[in-house]
Design a protein that fits this description.
Blueprint lengths: L3 H8 L5 E5 H4 L2 H9 L3 E3 L5 H12 L4 E2 L18 H9 L6 E4 L5 E8 L2 E8 L5 E4 L16 H28 L10
Parallel strand pairs: 1-2, 1-3
Antiparallel strand pairs: 4-7, 5-6
Helix pairs in contact: 4-5
């Protein structure tokens, strides 16, 4: 699970709804907690039900958290995003608030396991800080002179914005680290 699943509920005024892969709902305890918290189950073979449920939540004024990469990105690679967030915004009129997330590699731990019959691997944050930076609210339909811009081009623009936020975080975090002196007292 991404760090924002734990952090965002503390910094938002409302409880966010996350789109979460179906296999996590199959765990009896975790699945029960996710359902009670109103999280949205995503079936990768047919995401239409999750898409419609998220659009309904947006129409009701709720906050829906979507990872356009469709997966965790602990190595901070630039993945091409999926168009769901843009299509939801176009369908409901809800703005997208881009969020850059950065966890320093020293705070991550590699893991490997078999879950729901599939081999999975990734990284979890085990300590330290998680840096979040939000961008300005963005409405994809207002970013072009043309009437119909393909959703994948708008998604590319969104991803460029998100990765720009991550680059800003990494640069500032590195600048802070580089200024730290292990001993502020001059040695004689």
């Amino acid at each position: 699970m991404p760090p924002t699943l734990f952090y965002l509920p503390f910094i938002l005024t409302e409880i966010p709804r996350f789109l979460i892969q179906k296999s996590l709902f199959s765990n009896p305890m975790l699945g029960w907690m996710l359902r009670k918290a109103g999280q949205i189950e995503v079936n990768r073979q047919d995401g239409r039900a999750a898409f419609n449920q998220a659009c309904e939540a947006l129409r009701n004024g709720e906050t829906v958290v979507i990872y356009p990469e469709g997966r965790l990105n602990p190595d901070h690679q630039n993945f091409r995003g999926k168009s769901g967030a843009v299509r939801m915004s176009l369908k409901t009129g809800a703005p997208i608030i881009p969020l850059g997330i950065y966890v320093p590699p020293s705070n991550l731990k590699d893991w490997r396991l078999v879950w729901a019959g599939r081999f999975n691997q990734g990284r979890w944050q085990i300590s330290g800080q998680c840096f979040l930076k939000s961008g300005e609210p963005w409405r994809p339909e207002g970013n072009s002179e043309q009437k119909r811009v393909p959703a994948h081009l708008l998604t590319d623009e969104l991803m460029k914005n998100i990765y720009g936020l991550v680059a800003d975080i990494k640069r500032k975090e590195t600048e802070c680290e580089s200024r730290i002196s292990h001993s502020l007292i001059r040695q004689w």
